[in-house]
């Protein structure tokens, strides 16, 4: 089987987790290869995301690594055997790969939590609002690229609007609600849409107002996508330009702590809706 030229973020995450299991077992690549009866090169290719791994081999590797976490093993098997070609594949070659990886991450997530200080979060943006953001990009995007990015961003809403919506929580600073992205009408329509979406069963919107006392703020936009098990959670620095994926245990621990603090500092959902409604009347 030919090696992959550009592994997806999901394929790389599987590779990283298999390497972590081997490291935890204290085995060198050649020792893991010998236990599996393959070459060291094959183990390296799997751990670099360049080659896939069958369910049978993955379970044998986990056994050789003395991993007893069956929930984790089953989740890794699901990642290894998944053959989903989602809607994002139509953008391959048209958009930077991180945009596609982000859509795939959201598709497989069991819970999405997002914090934004300057923009309305991507899955909650209206088409005009998203277009205004990409239009303001420097250097300017060719019209075809701009429309591809806007269309991709609108299709990301499927995680909120599909038959089985993914639970989603957005924490938005008042600054993001007030910054006039595009024309006044664009912001007015965006706030109205945000109000409507905040009433959905599985979508929660919280606001951090300017006058909140004792809030120093982390000022770090982020999304945390929950995996099938906590060890497979992924954080994302999402911007109009790219997406950076974070999966180290130490960094995820820090970001989860920040999320808890931000949630505790924000208004509850009911007060947040009242706040957005009041602000919408001012625009």
Mean pLDDT across every amino acid position = 93
Report low-confidence residues grouped into runs of 5 or more: none
Distance between the amino and carboxyl termini: 58 Å
- Helix share bin: 40-55%
As a percent range, the share of strand residues is 5-15%
Output the keywords:
six-stranded mixed β-sheet, 283 residues, 13 helices, alpha/beta
Account of the 3D structure:
- There is one protein chain.
- The model has no long low-confidence stretch (mean pLDDT 93).
- It is elongated, with a radius of gyration of 21 Å.
- The chain contains 13 helices and six strands.
- A six-stranded mixed sheet has the order 3-2-1-4-5-6, sandwiched between helices.
- The chain has 283 residues and is of the alpha/beta class.
- Helix 1 (9-25) runs parallel beside helix 4, helix 4 runs antiparallel to helix 5 (70-81) and helix 7 (127-135) runs antiparallel to helix 8.
- A hairpin with a 4-residue loop joins strand 5 (234-238) and strand 6.
